[in-house]
């Protein structure tokens, strides 16, 4: 059964090289109350990569991917959550169908988008170019049951400020442990303070990932 259509790929902001000419693609997912116009600023930080990159940034309906906090029981965020994950899957499928291998598809999100990014990866395991959760964690309570899966050593960033009011640190720490157990190559970055923002070290990590796509 297809997820209920709440979000759509039709309002996706596209930039960089056309898919047919790109050596890799990055899907960017904005946070709650934000938009594709905001998150696409990360693309500017990745300009100058050795290979031409395509960027795709979908917009959430009402600027919200799912209505409740990310750590409530999964059912409380349905059907919005499944629809949001379906948007990512549709874009990944579009990129792959254009000829770009999964190993050169990166997914990066901030806040709500970070949680979606990590959740999508564990539900759709394969080797990606990279997975980056910028101020986020896996969706659901800490004791959410997750069947074993294999991310095939995909490089995964799990990062957040230590006192972020929106993302409790214990969920970030647990996400890093879970993803490591799912055979991801996890980098965990915990920053001092409470800023809910994208940090320079996160951007440096993203640049390092796309630098290998030569």
TrEMBL record:
Query: What is any Pfam family matched here?
Result: Abhydrolase_2
Q: Is this entry keyworded Hydrolase?
A: yes
All residue ranges annotated as the Phospholipase/carboxylesterase/thioesterase domain in the record: 21-213
Q: Which UniProt keywords apply?
A: Hydrolase
InterPro entries in the record: AB_hydrolase_fold (IPR029058), LYPA1-2/EST-like (IPR050565), PLipase/COase/thioEstase (IPR003140)
Molecular function terms in GO for this entry?
Answer: hydrolase activity
Sections of the chain in a coiled coil: none
Member of which family?
Belongs to the AB hydrolase superfamily. AB hydrolase 2 family.
Q: What is this protein called?
A: Phospholipase
